[in-house]
Design a protein that fits this description.
Elements lengths: L1 H18 L3 H12 L2 H23 L2 H7 L1 H24 L18 H13 L3 H13 L6 H25 L3 H9 L1 H21 L6
Helix pairs in contact: 1-7, 1-8, 2-3, 2-6, 2-8, 2-10, 3-6, 3-7, 3-8, 4-5, 5-10
């Protein structure tokens, strides 16, 4: 019972974090509206796989590695921050480009793999998430964590991350939301690109040289 409550607490906190708007939310929302529902769901799947990777990394002790090798953490923060800035610039410069939806014979976009990869890389672009996971896991999990929990926890994290972003993709991929996006594409893309760029810049400037 105690372990069940601990896992429920972890999933609840992670869900609150996922709901908070950030680069992941912006990417999934924009993909679902501007491209297709299927692409939005593939991006959500990439977010979920990113959650699995982060949870496994934390369970394997990467938090201790970051603490003992601060330069590694700094390098990852810089890489993630600059990636978000790069992604923001792409969105900003593509704001005036028309949105073309090219479907394959079975009705699915051929860019599904690209959407998945974009979701995965965006999720992994912020190494602070690994630290957040580490703090949450340390706060809720017992020290004598059973092997079954170690195996199941990453998949529970996947369910939270992919589940929430799939709801976002489904909610924002309707014809009405797509029509509204097309009417205001330039402004929406500029806002999305600006917010994502600020998040990346915040990540970069948060880097502090080691004493």
């Amino acid at each position: 019972m105690e372990l069940t409550l601990s896992l429920a607490g972890i999933l609840g906190v992670l869900l609150i974090g996922a709901i908070s708007p950030g680069p992941s939310f912006i990417l999934v929302a924009r993909t679902a509206i501007a491209v297709s529902r299927f692409d939005g769901l593939m991006a959500a799947l990439g977010m979920g796989v990113g959650g699995i990777i982060f949870s496994l990394v934390v369970l394997l002790g990467i938090k201790a590695v970051f603490a003992s090798v601060p330069l590694l953490y700094i390098a990852l923060k810089l890489t993630g921050g600059f990636y978000l800035i790069y992604l923001a610039l792409r969105i900003w410069h593509g704001a005036k480009e028309p949105t073309a939806i090219t479907l394959s014979e079975n009705g699915m976009r051929r860019s599904a793999g690209k959407s998945f990869a974009l979701g995965l890389v965006t999720q992994l672009s912020n190494p602070k998430t690994a630290i957040v996971y580490g703090g949450i896991f340390a706060a809720f999990l017992p020290s004598d964590l059973p092997r079954s929990a170690v195996v199941s926890l990453p998949f529970l994290v996947f369910a939270v991350e992919a589940g929430w972003y799939s709801l976002v993709a489904l909610a924002l991929s309707t014809e009405s939301s797509r029509a509204a996006y097309l009417r205001s594409k330039v402004h929406i893309d500029r806002i999305a690109g600006g917010v994502m760029g600020l998040l990346g810049l915040k990540l970069v400037v948060s880097v502090r040289p080691t004493p």
